[in-house]
């Protein structure tokens, strides 16, 4: 299957190896991957901050750069959630109406694409240790992703997957929320990290690197022995 990929701006700038690992995983699953180097952002940052005209301009650029005939796979449920939900508010009854509606049918978060579209749950990945999974708000609430990442991680050889308390509770990032309400955001991160530590896990894994950046900052600040890992990085181990 030929697929396009969309790399979020924060992964492109801060963790490009996660993008390369997603490509490795998709190729292992039998996909021929295409990446348009001109792509930048889905518009979510501006949209969430209330700058809808700016968000629309950025989103139009994305719509002009993606194919309407191929699936678009992204290592971020928050970006996919933006495309699937918020584009309704930006483009309804516009000249981009048909194109964004087609994109909504074809856009998938990585684990969702592997399990629901390709019907792949075992890639032959290998990672030794104990891990717990963090449900990002975007994955769980916007994209209805719950079982797919767990199915994939349970089939990673050597990895023990354990559930933490309140795994569906927000980590406190929330985009601009972490900036506007910093003390609350930090307290939510603290609670999430403590719940993860209580499981004895070495890794906290998620579909969203935005959550992991927030949690990793708290972990490093407190010198806590816990590693954050994007699901693409976990699945790429041993391939």
What does this structure look like?
There is one protein chain. It is built from 13 helices and eight strands. It is of the alpha/beta class and 239 residues long. The chain has two domains: 2-117; 126-235, Rossmann fold, CATH 3.40.50.11810. The strands form two sheets. A four-stranded parallel beta sheet has the order 2-1-3-4, with helices on both faces. The chain has a four-stranded parallel beta sheet with strand order 6-5-7-8, with helices on both faces. β7, α12 and β8 (227-230) form a beta-alpha-beta unit.
Shape: globular
Number of strands: 8
Assembly context of the chains? single chain
Helix count equals 13
Helix content: 40-55%
Strand content: 15-25%
Overall average residue pLDDT: 96
Tell me the major beta sheet. 4 strands, parallel
Cα separation of the termini: 19 Å
Element string (H = helix, E = strand):
EHHEHHEHHEHEHHEHHEHEH
**What is the number of independent domains?**
2
Residue stretches low in confidence (pLDDT < 50, at least 5 long) are: none
Rg over C-alpha atoms, rounded to the nearest angstrom: 17 Å
| Structural class by secondary-structure content | alpha/beta
Widest β-sheet, arrangement of strands: 2-1-3-4
């Amino acid at each position: 299957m030929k697929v396009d990929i969309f790399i979020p701006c924060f992964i492109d700038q801060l963790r490009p190896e996660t993008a390369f690992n997603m490509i490795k995983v998709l190729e292992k699953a039998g996909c021929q991957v295409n990446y348009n180097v001109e792509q930048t952002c889905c518009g979510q940052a501006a949209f969430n901050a209330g700058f809808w005209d700016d968000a629309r301009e950025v989103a139009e650029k994305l719509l002009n750069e993606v194919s309407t005939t191929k699936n678009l796979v992204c290592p971020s449920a928050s970006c996919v959630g933006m495309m699937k939900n918020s584009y309704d508010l930006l483009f309804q009854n516009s000249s981009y109406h048909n194109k964004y509606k087609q994109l909504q049918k074809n856009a998938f978060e990585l684990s969702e694409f592997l399990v629901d579209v390709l019907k792949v749950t075992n890639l032959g990945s290998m990672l030794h240790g104990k891990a717990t999974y963090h449900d990002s708000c975007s994955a769980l609430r916007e994209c209805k992703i719950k079982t797919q990442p767990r199915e994939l991680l349970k089939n990673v050889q050597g990895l023990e997957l354990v559930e933490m308390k309140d795994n569906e509770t927000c980590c406190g990032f929330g985009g601009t929320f972490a900036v506007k309400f910093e003390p609350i955001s930090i307290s939510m991160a603290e609670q999430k990290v403590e719940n993860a530590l209580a499981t004895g896990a070495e890794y906290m894994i998620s579909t969203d690197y935005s959550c992991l950046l927030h949690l990793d900052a708290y972990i490093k600040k407190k010198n806590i022995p816990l590693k954050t890992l994007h699901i693409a990085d976990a699945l790429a181990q041993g391939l």
